[in-house]
Structures are given as structure tokens and as C-alpha cells.
Sequence to fold (305 residues):
Amino acid sequence: MTLAEKTQQKAAYCLGVGALMLATAGLSAAPHRFHFIYAIIITPLLFLRFHQYLSTKREYYLYDLCYGVNGLAVLAMAWPTRNVWMYQTVFVLGNGPMCAAIIIWHNMIVFHSADRLGSFSLHFLVTLLAFTWRWYPAEGQRSVLCSDDTCSLSLWNWLCAPVLFYLAWTSMYLMKTEVLDKQRLAADPELHTSLRWWASHQTNASGLVRRMFRSLGIMKKGEGFHSDELKTKVMYQSCLLGITVVTALPAKLLFSNFWLHSAWMAVAFAAALWRGADFYFERFQLKAQDMCGSAPPIATSAKKK
Fold:
């Protein structure tokens, strides 16, 4: 590992711990102003993400849904008048597919890794932001999620608007990858996309999807995913749409119950924390094995004559 890489990891560790302390302090002291903490953390994170991905041929990850949801959150807060539709759409997507993605895509809290910590933060911060919108409005004011004193989540804002936003964002993504940049992606297999990652990595999620499609007769036994095939693309987008709809369903309960909402966020945070602990202890174990294996043998006493 080069000195620059070590410095980058140390900086990521310090910034990660600092961001966690800042978020904790903000939630404790003034949860109704957490949007300022969100802006302080998310702005440098996005700049770092752009630089990191553009330099490693991973810029197509920047078109994933998580960036769209965070963008919608920023737009809702910057809108000159309160737009309940925007706020509630962020709430449903933030506490649905975004929060579930922490578990499904194995996000982990690894403080020295800017990549892993950034992925977790992009998914969890917007979830936490929506949580404070719902349960910690400014004193004497209604929540920005509420259009009246009843503060309800209509069917349109619960399912229709979030799914339409997902479809619109996905349409733009497909226009970029399948039309505008199709030749570029075909000519350079080293360019990363979420579809290429999903098709080439054997994860629990992809294994479950493979078994499901085989049981439906869509895939044959032994058949795998190929990112350049139309069949794989259709299956991938179908899975994402299904995940979006299914994970959005509990948002109605989360919107109406503080403790359920808190428990769901705690489960997602604990999953990322556990995977982070697993990552560190695996590395510690390997490091300890290397140290023991490279240590000089212990001298033994001379045999008696």
C-alpha cells in the first residue's frame, strides 16, 4: 500500500468518525434542524464520489436511484414553497428501497473506506432526514410532510408518485446506458455499471433471484446472467421495480408509528454495523495469522546428552 493510499484511508476514517459525531450531536441537540447537518455531510460526500468514480471508470454508478432520491430531497428543501408531494415521495423512497438497499446490497460501516462508508451514508442519511421531517418538526409548526393537521399519507403519495419517480429516473438511466452511451459501453468492458456488477457477482440476492426465475421457467438450470443480453437486462430492471414496490408498502405503517419507524432504521443500521465489524475482524484475523506465520520459531532448549 502506497503512502497516498494510507493517507486517504486515514482521512476517510477521521471524516467518517467526525460525520457520525456531527450527525449524533445534531440529532440530540436540534433534530428539527437536521437538514443542515445533512447538507454539511452530503455535499462533500457527493464531490468526493464524483471524483472517485470518474477516475476509476465507475461514473455510471452516479445514475443509480440513490442519487436521484438524494437529489429530490435537496430539491424539496430548496423549493420556494413547501411541496408535500416531494417530501412524501422522499419519505417513501428513503424508508423503502433506500433503507432496504443497506441490507440487500450489503452496505457496511467501514470508516477507513471512503467507498463503503459513502455507499452507506448515501442510503442512510436520506432515511434519517425523512425520519426527522416526520417526527421532529420545528416547534409550533406542522411537519413538512403534512398538508393539514391530520397528516396522512395518501395512496397517490404512498405508491403512485414514488413508483412514477422510479420509472422516470430508470427511463433516463436506460436512455443514457442503452441509447446514448451504448457504443461506449460495448467498446469498453472495464466501465462499471450496476447491471454489470450484479450479473458478475455471486451474492445472496442474485442467487435468490436466479432460483426464483428458474422456478418460474424463465431461466434454465445452469444458466447465468450476462449483462449484454436483453433477457438479463429485463430481469434486472424487473427485480429493481419489484424491490421498489415491495419495500415501499411498509412506508404507510412507518409514517404513522414512531416506534416501528425507529425499529426499521435500527435494523438497517445494525445490519451495516455488523457487516462492518465482520469486515474488520476478518482483516484482524488474517493480519494476526500473517504475523504469527512470519514470526521466527521459538528457540528450544538443547537436548540432554
